[in-house]
Amino acid sequence: MAEPEASSAAANGGGRLRNAFGGVLSAFTLLLIGVLAFSIRLFSVIKYESVIHEFDPYFNFRVTQFLSKNGIYEFWNWFDDRTWYPLGRVIGGTVYPGLTLTAGTIWWLLNSLNIPLSVETVCVFTAPIFSANASWATYLLTKEAKGTGAGLMAAAILAMVPSYISRSVAGSYDNEAVAIFALIFTFYLYVKTLNTGSLFYATLNALSYFYMVCSWGGYTFIINLIPMHVLLCIVTGRYSSRLYIAYAPLVILGTLLAALVPVVGFNAVMTSEHFASFLVFIILHVVALVYYIKGLLTPRLFKVAMTLVISVGLAVCFAVVAVLVALVASSPTKGWSGRSLSLLDPTYASKYIPIIASVSEHQPPTWPSYFMDINVLAFLIPAGIISCFLPLSDASSFMVLYLVTAVYFSGVMVRLMLVLAPAACILSGIALSEVFGVLTRSLKFQLSKLFDDSSSAVPASGDSSTERATNSTKSENGNEKSETAPKEKPSKKNRKKEKEMAESVPVKPNKKEKRLLVLPFELSIMGILLLIVLGGFYVVHCVWAAAEAYSAPSIVLTSRSRDGLHVFDDFREAYAWLSHNTDVDDKVASWWDYGYQTTAMANRTVIVDNNTWNNTHIATVGTAMSSPEKAAWEIFNSLDVKYVLVVFGGLVGYPSDDINKFLWMVRIGGGVFPHIKEPDYLRDGQYRVDAQATPTMLNCLMYKLCYYRFVETDGKGFDRVRGYEIGKKHFKLTHFEEVFTTHHWMVRIYKLKPQKNRVRGKLKKLKSGAKSSSTLAAGRKNPWQ
């Protein structure tokens, strides 16, 4: 008896040591994954410089500067008079504060520890830091569904996936930098609560959801996906108390916390995006009541009670639906925001809200976009789905539902490829973990079998070292004992034992099923090598995407030619000129794309910016750009505009210039001011800037400001972006004057000429006498029409 006890103690000790070593190895691997996620996003700093990227991040940077300088209370009450002149903007009530508060807190902590980093440096590196956090959250989420191996694989894949890198490189200081981490961590806490039924994790889940609400408007994806999963569990008969604990506190506490965010407020209970969560909340309580009553009553009384509950439940549901229908019917958009309607109906924005359709990241993606952003993961996802069904659990069903909804939304809007990336990484990590498990187990089994065959002369006592012996069950050991026993005529007691053993024999088919997963040695080697090569291709693609495709800041452009590398720093050159050569109170008009950068880098007041909250104001600027020079001057003068900024890429071949965006200005302006008609700017349905362009196009302000003196560059006026010689080459400006053009002609700034002085007593002859003056007074045109 002593020997088995000693062997079992040694086995327990070895198991503890193996588990401890596995935990240390997993922690070290996670640390390396975090370092990888952080370092792969530093190409933008290494190749270029530590600078804020894109457009929206400049506003976030400006707000963070204000927060760190003036404090939290001033931030909540900040009225910004340098944007949307003359309306202004209440920053504290119109911004998602999660990113700003996070970066401000990091800056405050570092300075408290006497680490004197600037606010800009903290903002630049916030996204890489939270990408490491997102990788660790992915590990936790996948581990809850399929174990540690799948979690480590999914975390490593997410650390490098190009779709996430595009929004989290160093300098990409946008809301998604912290929101993706909050999204994944909220899902992890929900699944953790599903698996444990812990109210502690349910409370943490509500707090994590609150952080997501503070960080990004995409929080509505969470508050609709989780109710869908709860409803799926109820319909498929998987209701449990753990499901109730995971969902009910999230709806109650999460909604109350979400209403505390000023930009959300009562929208958390008044808009259609949140109604699904409340409806599922009611259904969940009805189901919980049914299960509770069923446990108390006899089957006969339960039928009577069910009739009563269903009757009352239907009455309550009809009343709730009537109230919701009344609330929804009172809204012209049926209680949905424009962006939400664009997701449900992809044609909605192009029909009714051109300002949403004009944004490039709101366009549907192409098939190459999927291969660019998730690469080989697209081929691993189906295998991951199959693995989730073997076996199906609440956690794995949530992963599949997450993937399906993310695939749909990413197909509607290319920006939401970012939401698809975590789901693709999780499913791919599960698939790779399962495949590696089968291949390595097969390899281990075949190697052990090979060694056993080489020592076949030795008695079979060494079988305990093989995989077959280590995986043998207790019932099989019992069968071996019965086979080695002397063959005697069984007694009644022995026959009973043999009958019990015979009933335990069906365990063997499971063993055979496991052996079916054992592949030949050569096939296992080839499979492992193939997966290593596939992973190598994925790593190379991700590094290339991080270094070349997504690291270049839009504020500084580069191109390579035979002469070497060319740097185009025209944007900062133009903003620096505005900052040093104009008065502090001067107003600058441009298309809304450049509003945030103008305010942050030039510190000048703008008419519109990237917030796009007032469609009429943006339509006014679009109307001015689409109008003839004199009418445009009157519109800008009525807004106290002194300078007009346009972006032109015809000389260097920069395609994202204002001429390519001009038709959106026409559409947005025509949506508010009907005298602007898109067909007037098209020749036979084609948008042209050459000699075949329409007179309306050739005489509009945008055309003149972009192509003024352009013929002087090469003598022909050849536009490298459109591939044409411009139609109107030699013209003069009557109401605007050029004050600055950058080195590569990418940014051009014009000043409104002052209105001519009226000289009393020197009127012309009666050709324009009293009669004409009265006509002018009565017939002066409204510049807005």
Radius of gyration: 34 Å
CATH third-level topology of the domain at 566-752: Rossmann fold
Structural class assignment: mainly alpha
Strand-residue fraction?
A: 5-15%
What CATH architecture of the domain at 566-752 would you give? 3-Layer(aba) Sandwich
Please identify the top-level CATH class of the domain at 566-752: Alpha Beta
Query: Helical residue percent?
Result: 55-70%
Which consecutive residue ranges, at least 5 long each, have pLDDT under 50? 457-490, 499-516, 761-780
Instruction: Please give the number of β-strands.
Output: 11
The backbone outline, from C-alpha atoms, is globular
Give the termini separation.
101 Å
Query: What is the subunit arrangement here?
Result: single chain
Largest sheet, spatial ordering of strands: 6-5-7-11-10
Mean pLDDT: 84
Summarize the biggest pleated sheet. Answer: 5 strands, mixed
Q: What's the number of helices?
A: 37
